Amino acid sequence: MLLLFFLVSLLMTFSIFGYGLFLTRIINLSHSDYNFGLLGFIGLFCLSIISSYTHIFFPHNYIHNLFLHSLGLILLIIFIKNDQIKFQKDLKFFLLIFSLLFIALLISKTNEDYPYYHLPNSLQFAQQKLQFGIGNLNHGFKHISSLFMLQSLNYVPFFNHYLFNLTNFVFLVFFILFIIKEIFFRQSISNISKILLAFFFVLLLVKFSRIAEYGSDIAGQILIAVYLFLVVEAIFNHNLNLNIKSNNLKLSLIFIVFAITTKFILVIYSIYLLLIFFLTKNKKLFLYDIFEIKYLLIILLPIIFLFFFNFTSTGCILYPLEMTCFSEAFSWSLPKDVVSYLNLHYEAWSKGGKGPNLELQNLDIYINSLNWVPHWISVYFFNKVSDYILVIFAIIIIFIIFFAKEIFSKKIFSFQDKKEFSLFFIFTILVLIIWFFNFPSLRYAGYIVVFIFLIFPFVYLISTKVDLKDKLTLKKISVIFLISYSVFILKNTNRIYNEINIPASEHHNFKNFPLYWVEDKKYQEIFINGHKIYITDHKCWDIPSTCVRAIGSLKISKYKNYIFYSKR
Questions:
Q1: Neighbouring C-beta atoms of residue 247, cutoff 10 Å
Q2: How far is CA 293 from CA 27, 186, 242, 277, 302, in A?
Q3: Domain carrying residue 532
Q4: Is residue 558 part of a domain?
Q5: Rounded to an integer, what distance in angstroms lies between the CA atom of residue 15 and that of residue 26?
Q6: pTM for the whole structure
Q7: Distance (Å, whole) CA 94 – CA 521
Q8: In a domain, 405, yes or no
Q9: Each residue's pLDDT tens digit, 27-37
Q10: Which of 55, 69, 139, 246 gives the lowest tally of CB atoms within 10 Å of its CB?
Q11: Element (H or E) spanning 68, and its range?
């Protein structure tokens, strides 16, 4: 079973590269050929567009997904034949990274939100085509993310939904592959960019070692990390030719758009594009690249689909912003008072006013002005944020230990980017302020901006002292990476050992190793207006779609072969 699990996961990941190669040819992104990690992300981006489109007409069932993955493999084989030696080397290196990280995909205990809305949403996309008003059935169905659409593509025979976590895993694999290739195999990358990537590598393997905890939050912030690398390159690398600058610009827009479709609040990072535009000498080239027809269409489609599926689910273009809702116009849309209440709920949750075992009174007063800050500090900062800051400082200390001689020496490399550094850091502070005053939860777009804010001054300093083209420096970086990987392996080995040894009568154990644990939920099959739904009184888990947690005044109608759910 374990070998089959590995091989099927590997084949499905290979198919992603086929779509990455396909999209790079469509929009002329030749630079992406040099890094298979980058190519993997582009493949996921391409699949997110394809899956969004096909969901309108078809469920992502076995036939749909087998066809899609087979096509991806065929595309990969075609491109390998065109450039055999180069791609073979890249694929072998990818296989090594995939195998070294595979232990993280062996999950027993899933994310706490997984049975609540991650799994039910992905199953809904896998088992049903587009339906209207599903936000009326289940609170979790109100949340739209391209991640759930991508996860539904992993619904295949024999494994069913047990490969859904493969999506988050490949984000980890592609990011690690991307970092290693950029640091060790690309000479044209700026010193500051390589050091930034080295910090990201350590953070990801040490802090975010458990794929089960990624949920719908970490993948988008990984995309932001790659996006910020591209931003830093555009600002600090003055040796890039126009062709590479053009490709970097296109890639940065792809990554920020992709990140936004995973979680819209990541849109706050898009303001870095203004900095790139401000510092770009050839602004006509900047605008020309953006407004190329094929590229513009590729960029706009994911945003259009995000708004469309928000609308079909809730009646809001951008849920839960009340001003974007058509509550009175459509019977299947969410009532205005429900949207208003949930908007308050989310803001209070992010500001420490609500939680699994906590709910303060007068939440509208609590979130007003800065009333929430003292309580947020006591219940959230001195728990989640403080622990995260300690991890960041530990990473900085590791780099200081390894590069103490260079850092504290009097030798200073020629570095003339003080203006660029100041502007970049000011924009980072601006993003941090927007995050803090609106949704100050690390999982809500906060991990990356807090990390950048704390480490970037040190990254700037060390980049003036350390040359990552030097062999001794690269050896030190290699040792740091090996230590990080050892921590990653130890944490995951210990996790799996503990989960396997949990008594079979308890939750979260590997009853069907290597597949994750699923609670066997009781549900009732009923028909409303000839349409079958499944009722449960708790989390949906893997109950067949469409899962409903409360009937109430539920009405179901059908128009032109599309299902509409209403509670009015």
A1: 20
A2: 10, 31, 20, 20, 15
A3: 524-566
A4: yes
A5: 17
A6: 0.96
A7: 39
A8: no
A9: 887 655 568 89
A10: 139
A11: helix 62-82
